[in-house]
């Protein structure tokens, strides 16, 4: 098969040629956009799931839907080492520009508030070199979004931005990737601001994406967050959707898969979108002709697995220290033992799809749970594992357990 015409796209956040299995989420978001535009109350949205299930791709698709409605949009990626002010200011600067408000005075006033919010990060008395100056021509507003209290400032900021959008009968969407990496104060402020603008009926929504424990992060910050956001769990694709993700791009290039090949691809990928793209690319390159067969899948599998081992699994594994790697392997071994005992059939399927008790991991290492707290906490901060419930942990990456055990 001609590698130049290979349609598959295994990349971080890269939109696949066929966004299969996400019709429900896209359709529901169109309803949200229309309701907000008409002044109807609507909750902000949070997408959760493991890495590789396409959260970032879906987040971008939702943003594109808002852009088509002529909303103002801005996107940011949260980072553990960065506060919310700078990236959110840049995102809102873009959103205000996208609105295209005809009255320049009103726009300049709101941009001045955005600038004041951004510049307040350094704090009063900070040296000039420590201050961040966003690329906004308007003078910074005085007495608005510049108190230094992130919760007060964020409420004032989103209120003014929402008012500008309401004048036009449009809305503003703020799209936040890796939302679980926001600091506690920023999470609390964001929840409070969403609560305030919802009560005020302003056309501003936040769409966040993050790991499965993100709802717990939000709930720990504000108890009412469970009612503030609409949560959507993004998971691996059904067999039908996975087949479409493979077959539709191939058909565009005049190629096809036979039934056994599609079955083999689903068995190899488990329906995880990133894996589908990685295997699809490898199989296309090795297949001599159409239709692609199960034999072609078998030949391509080692190449796809080698690519995933380096780019998807290995890059994350390398971030762990030797002690942390030992902890990760113990998690994988515990998951296998748990599956073999019949307590979790899902873990037997991919050796990483479920949580395991931290006490069992400690027992596998022959150590006390308290002595392993530093390693566990470091892995949590690095985003390699997550804790969805007290006393249990799981991998953030599907099939990671299988990869670890294969490493020996």
Structural class by secondary-structure content: alpha/beta
Q: What do the pLDDT scores average to?
A: 90
Side-by-side strand order of the widest sheet = 2-3-4-1-5
In helices, the fraction of residues equals 40-55%
Q: Could you say how many structural domains there are in total?
A: 3
CATH C-level class of the largest domain: Alpha Beta
Under CATH, the homologous superfamily of the largest domain reads P-loop containing nucleotide triphosphate hydrolases
Instruction: Give the amount of beta strand, in percent.
Output: 5-15%
What does this structure look like?
By secondary structure, this protein is α/β, with parallel strands linked by helices. The chain folds into three domains: 23-233, P-loop containing nucleotide triphosphate hydrolases (Rossmann fold); 238-312; 322-407, Orthogonal Bundle (Arc Repressor Mutant, subunit A). Helices cover 54% and strands 10% of the residues. The chain is built from 17 helices and eight strands. The protein has helices at residues 23-37, 55-68, 85-99, 104-119, 150-168, 184-200, 214-221, 225-228, 239-252, 259-269, 273-286, 294-317, 322-340, 345-350, 358-365, 373-381, 400-407; strands spanning 44-48, 72-77, 172-177, 204-210, 229-233, 356-357, 385-389, 392-395. It has a five-stranded parallel β-sheet, sandwiched between helices. The protein has a three-stranded antiparallel β-sheet with strand order 6-8-7. Strand 7 (385-389) and strand 8 form a beta hairpin. Helix 13 crosses helix 15 (358-365). The longest helix has 24 residues, at 294-317. The radius of gyration is 23 Å and the shape is globular. It starts with 22 loop residues before the first helix and ends with a helix. The model is unreliable at 344-349 (pLDDT under 50).
């Amino acid at each position: 098969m001609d590698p130049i015409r290979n349609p598959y796209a295994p990349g971080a956040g890269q939109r696949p040629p066929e966004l299969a299995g996400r019709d429900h989420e896209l359709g529901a978001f169109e309803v949200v956009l229309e309701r907000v535009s008409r002044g109807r109350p609507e909750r902000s949205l949070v997408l959760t799931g493991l890495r590789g299930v396409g959260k970032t791709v879906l987040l971008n698709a939702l943003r594109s839907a808002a852009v088509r409605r002529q909303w103002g949009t801005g996107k940011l990626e949260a980072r553990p080492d960065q506060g919310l002010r700078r990236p959110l200011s840049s995102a809102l600067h873009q959103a205000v520009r996208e609105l295209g408000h005809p009255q320049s005075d009103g726009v300049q006033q709101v941009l001045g508030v955005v600038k004041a919010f951004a510049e307040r990060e350094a704090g009063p008395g900070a040296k000039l070199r420590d201050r961040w100056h966003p690329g906004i021509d308007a003078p910074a507003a005085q007495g608005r979004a510049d108190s230094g209290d992130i919760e007060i400032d964020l409420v004032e900021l989103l209120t003014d931005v929402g008012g500008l959008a309401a004048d036009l009968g449009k809305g503003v969407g703020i799209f936040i990737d890796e939302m679980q990496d926001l600091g506690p104060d920023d999470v609390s402020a964001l929840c409070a601001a969403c609560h305030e603008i919802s009560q005020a009926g302003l056309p501003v929504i936040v769409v966040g994406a993050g790991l499965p424990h993100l709802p717990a992060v939000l709930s720990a910050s504000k108890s009412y967050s469970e009612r503030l956001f609409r949560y959507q769990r993004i998971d691996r694709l059904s067999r039908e959707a996975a087949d479409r993700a493979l077959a539709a791009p191939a058909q565009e290039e005049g190629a096809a898969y036979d039934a056994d090949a599609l079955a083999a691809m689903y068995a190899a990928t488990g329906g995880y979108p990133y894996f589908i793209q990685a295997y699809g690319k490898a199989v296309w390159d090795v297949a001599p002709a159409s239709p692609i067969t199960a034999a072609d899948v078998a030949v391509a599998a080692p190449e796809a697995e080698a690519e995933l081992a380096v780019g998807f699994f290995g890059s994350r594994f390398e971030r762990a220290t030797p002690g942390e790697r030992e902890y990760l392997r113990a998690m994988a071994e515990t998951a296998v033992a748990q599956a073999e005992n019949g307590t979790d059939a899902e873990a037997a399927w991919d050796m990483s799809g479920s949580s395991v008790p931290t006490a069992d991991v400690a027992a596998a290492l022959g150590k006390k749970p308290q002595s392993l707290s530093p390693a566990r906490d470091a892995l949590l901060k690095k985003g390699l594992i997550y804790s969805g419930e007290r006393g249990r942990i799981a991998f953030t990456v599907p099939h990671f357990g299988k990869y670890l055990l294969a490493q020996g």
